[in-house]
């Protein structure tokens, strides 16, 4: 009779192996870096260090600025510093779209995906190209306002200026850390201790998390230090570490042991297992519940331990909600192909940031959706630059139950492709921020997708007549709860009137940087009177907002939680007091650059209304 191994012993061995692997470094480059630190030596100075600023901004997930301007845009990261070492709010810097946790506390907030690794906390990114590929020795980030958002720095093996793209694109993490709150908003040069890598790079990626910040972080420039030839370590550091040999041998033993166990499990039937306390005797649903707390890589590792756990780890019920965004650098056509059999019941899928630089092909994405799209309800594809018209057509054909579609910053999709979205009549959430959607396609979407509750059209610069769009929303989208019109350039009081009359369930409205809206037309008082359920209202950079508008909000929108009136010159402290007294749930009030609201007034309001975060920005 073949030997019997208790399942708990298997799990213990697997867990011990995982701990050992995590304790060790992942690559030989990491091991050399660690040995260099342990032996307190440096690379021999055989190369002259090259210092270079970013030549070009290649890609980014969001920015505060306009697509047709340089103010507050990611493009400001190219070249030499514009502001540093000065501190303050400057238009010449790079600023992401959000900060703090305010965007997670509004009606448009989306539920997070489960199984997101605790080590992945990135919210935004920017990719920078440099002139010369080098082996990095240092990365300096010049932060000029509210520093501390950068959580990860990566280097890419692909040269964006090469005529011959590599067969394989590698990303290596140079440095990563959990978000930290920095005391004070003053400028600083951030120079983390980076890891040595074994390939030259001229493509650097910064990932940020602004959730702990009190205001928008502002970046001025990035400096890459490096050498042309791979550093040669001294003989002292190249000596073999006996601890590493021991670890390698131990892992080989464990690997062999696990192979042997798998062979045993292949010939052992369930009835041969002991009768008490082992996994094969637990209810199937209980094991599924236990495994639901593992990340996707852990599931894949655990599936290699035995037949029973392989069956559980490959059960499609474990993949109802699947986020591949944390693993964006490793996801490709092969990954999707391997996941197909496990994702036949998938309902939520996050492929944001994945597939760029040829990692996912149109055919690979299409094959996956044809097998796994029938039950999809939510599809996140932010910054998916592989997407084209064929992909949108496949989405609309293969995902008949789709309710949420995020195409944020998918700026490579051609304008005519968006017509296909109108076929998905069940849509409740559509995010088209920074896309090339045109007016005709959008009118068709609004006409056929009458169930829409959340719509983002921020920075959609190809729409010619927002008044017509607003009129169609008022007529067709009666269930609309949140609407983002950030930086739409031509909406007027006429469009606002149509919108307010037809979409009276609106709880969130972003009209930031909409220069054609003027308080003198009564558009803001009309909003306040027609939309009593408003919880979030952004009127950012509209200098015409006045006391009358604030008093109407105080009288009619008592559920207001977030208000941004940055830049107005017409609002007095008295009207703000009325607003704060009336809106008991107010938690965010941005009065930056409001000329009548000085620091003394802000201190007084903070003292009287301590539950409200009142922001007053400055420039030195």
What does this structure look like?
- Residues 276-331 form the F-box domain.
- InterPro entries: F-box-like_dom_sf, F-box_dom, FBXL15_LRR, Leu-rich_rpt_Cys-con_subtyp, LRR_dom_sf.
- Keywords: Leucine-rich repeat, Ubl conjugation pathway.
- One of its GO terms (cellular component) is SCF ubiquitin ligase complex.
- It comes from Molothrus ater.
- The chain is an alpha/beta fold and 620 residues long.
- Among the domains are: 49-227, Galactose-binding domain-like (Jelly Rolls, Sandwich); 464-619, Ribonuclease Inhibitor (Leucine-rich repeat, LRR (right-handed beta-alpha superhelix), Alpha-Beta Horseshoe).
- It is built from 17 helices and 21 strands.
- It has helices spanning 7-23, 28-38, 235-238, 242-267, 284-291, 296-302, 307-313, 333-339, 362-372, 389-398, 439-448, 466-476, 493-502, 523-530, 547-556, 573-582, 599-608; strands at residues 50-53, 56-60, 94-95, 124-145, 150-156, 171-176, 188-190, 201-208, 218-227, 321-323, 348-350, 378-380, 404-406, 429-431, 454-456, 482-484, 508-510, 536-538, 562-564, 588-590, 613-615.
- The strands form two sheets. Strands 10-11-12-13-14-15-16-17-18-19-20-21 form a twelve-stranded parallel sheet, with helices on one face. Strands 1, 2, 3, 4, 5, 6, 7, 8 and 9 form a nine-stranded antiparallel sheet that branches.
- Helix 8 (333-339) links the parallel strand 10 and strand 11 (348-350).
- The N and C termini lie far apart (81 Å).
- The model is unreliable at 1-8, 22-44 and 234-277 (pLDDT under 50).
């Amino acid at each position: 009779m073949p030997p019997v191994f208790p399942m708990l012993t298997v799990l213990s061995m697997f867990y011990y192996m995982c701990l050992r692997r995590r304790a060790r470094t992942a690559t030989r480059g990491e091991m050399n870096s660690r040995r260099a630190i342990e032996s307190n030596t440096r690379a021999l100075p055989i190369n002259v260090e090259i210092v270079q600023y970013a030549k070009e901004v290649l890609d980014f997930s969001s920015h505060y600025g306009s697509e047709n301007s340089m103010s507050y845009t990611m493009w400001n990261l190219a070249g030499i510093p514009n502001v540093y070492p000065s501190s303050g709010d400057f238009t010449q810097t790079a600023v992401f779209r959000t900060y703090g946790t305010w965007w997670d506390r509004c009606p448009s907030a989306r539920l997070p995906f489960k199984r997101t690794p605790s080590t992945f906390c990135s919210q935004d990114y920017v990719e920078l190209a440099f002139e010369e590929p080098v082996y990095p020795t240092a990365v300096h980030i010049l932060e000029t306002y509210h520093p501390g958002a950068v959580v990860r720095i990566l280097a890419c093996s692909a040269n964006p200026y090469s005529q011959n793209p590599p067969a394989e694109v590698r990303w290596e993490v140079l440095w990563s850390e959990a978000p930290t709150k920095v005391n004070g908003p003053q400028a600083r040069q951030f120079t983390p201790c980076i890891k040595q890598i074994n390939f030259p790079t001229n493509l650097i990626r910064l990932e940020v998390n602004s959730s702990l910040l009190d205001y928008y972080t502002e970046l001025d420039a990035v400096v890459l230090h490096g050498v042309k030839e791979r550093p040669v370590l001294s003989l002292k550091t190249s000596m073999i570490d006996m601890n590493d040999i021991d670890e390698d041998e131990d892992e080989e033993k464990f690997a062999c042991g696990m192979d042997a166990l798998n062979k045993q499990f292949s010939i052992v039937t369930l009835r041969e297992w002991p009768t008490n306390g082992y996994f094969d005797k637990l209810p199937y649903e209980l094991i599924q519940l236990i495994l639901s707390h593992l990340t996707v890589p852990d599931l894949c590792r655990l599936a290699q331990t035995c037949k029973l756990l392989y069956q559980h780890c490959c059960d499609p019920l474990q993949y109802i909600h699947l986020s591949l965004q944390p693993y964006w650098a490793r996801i490709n056509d092969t990954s999707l192909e391997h996941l197909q059999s496990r994702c036949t019941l998938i309902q939520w899928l996050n492929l944001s940031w994945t597939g760029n630089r040829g990692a996912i092909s149109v055919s690979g994405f299409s094959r996956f959706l044809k097998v796994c799209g029938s039950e999809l309800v939510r599809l996140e594809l932010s910054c998916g630059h592989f997407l084209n018209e064929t992909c949108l057509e496949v989405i609309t054909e293969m995902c008949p139950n789709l309710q949420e579609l995020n195409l944020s910053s998918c700026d490579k999709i051609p304008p005519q492709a968006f017509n296909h979205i109108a076929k998905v009549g069940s849509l409740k959430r559509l995010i088209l921020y920074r896309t090339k959607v045109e007016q005709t396609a959008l009118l068709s979407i609004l006409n056929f997708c009458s169930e829409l509750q959340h719509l983002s059209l921020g920075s959609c610069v190809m729409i010619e007549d927002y008044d017509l769009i607003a009129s169609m929303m008022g007529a067709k989208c009666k269930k609309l709860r949140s609407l983002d019109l950030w930086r739409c350039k031509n909406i007027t009081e006429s469009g606002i009137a149509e919108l307010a009359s037809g979409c009276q369930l609106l709880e969130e409205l972003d009209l930031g940087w909409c220069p054609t809206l003027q308080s003198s037309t009564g558009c803001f008082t009309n909003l306040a009177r027609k939309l009593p359920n408003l919880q979030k209202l952004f009127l950012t950079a509209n200098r015409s907002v006045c006391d009358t508008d604030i008093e109407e909000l105080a009288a009619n929108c008592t559920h207001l939680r977030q208000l941004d009136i940055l830049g107005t010159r017409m609002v007095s402290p008295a009207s703000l007091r009325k607003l704060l007294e009336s809106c008991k749930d107010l938690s965010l009030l941005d009065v930056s650059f409001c000329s009548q609201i000085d620091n003394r007034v802000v201190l007084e309001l903070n003292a009287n209304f301590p539950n409200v975060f009142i922001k007053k920005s400055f420039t030195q």
